[in-house]
Amino acid sequence: MVWRSSILTLFSFLSITPIYAADDWCIQDPANPPCNGNRGRCTRNLDGSLGGFVAASAAVPLTIVHGVRYNGPYIGLEASVCDHAQVTENARVFENAVIFGDETHVYGNAWVYGNARVTGEAQVYGNSQIYGNSQVYGNARVFGNARVSGTAQVDGSAQVSENASISGNAWIYGNARVFGYARVYENAQVSENAQVEDAQISGNAQVFGEVWVYGDAKIYENAHIYQNARVYQNVRIYGNAQIFGVAQVFGNAHIYGDALIFEDIPNLVEF
Hints:
CATH architecture of the largest domain: 3 Solenoid
Number of helices: 1
Shape: elongated
CATH class of the largest domain: Mainly Beta
Strand content: 25-35%
Largest sheet: 13 strands, mixed
Helix content: under 10%
Number of domains: 2
């Protein structure tokens, strides 16, 4: 019979279609649901706006007003919080940002937005902002007033803090520390146990090992600073120059070309 066929068709549809909360405004594409189709719900924000998807396993504190549940932190309509991730306090996650992983935590006054991703055991807090197509993952920490944007990545046990800015296609990883007013951008990399304070690292430059670069120093183009080198004050290192060993380069030194420096070079104007 026609009615029996219709009932069987409806039953088959219900059996293979994921069931979400009755309010499904944040499910933009049922064929590609948020949080890989895991259980959860679309939410509401305290300002009255419709909120994004929060997985049942995730932790986003709620405020109940007249029996209606509202997010404590702001979760934008197209954002999602998945797995066992936590978004707490006054944090804001919006636009197409996704927070996921088992121990990920976004809190304080932090903002994550754009197409940014925070995952793993990463923590983002303070007044920091993660945006663009950037990613923070592993055991990384981003806090203070730090900014991570573009397609930049921060991972491993790296820390970006204070007023530091990571942008472009830069990559901070290992146990690296970037802080003060430091800027790392373009394709630059800071890794291992390197520390960058206030200085600028850009181009295809790489800073790694037990290095410390600070002050108004600028490292750019294809320069490499590594091992136990120290670079500080108004130094400029660029071209294919390499500073390594126990070298200390400071003052107004300019090191460039194919120079290899592994001893102290104070106050050179050109090399």
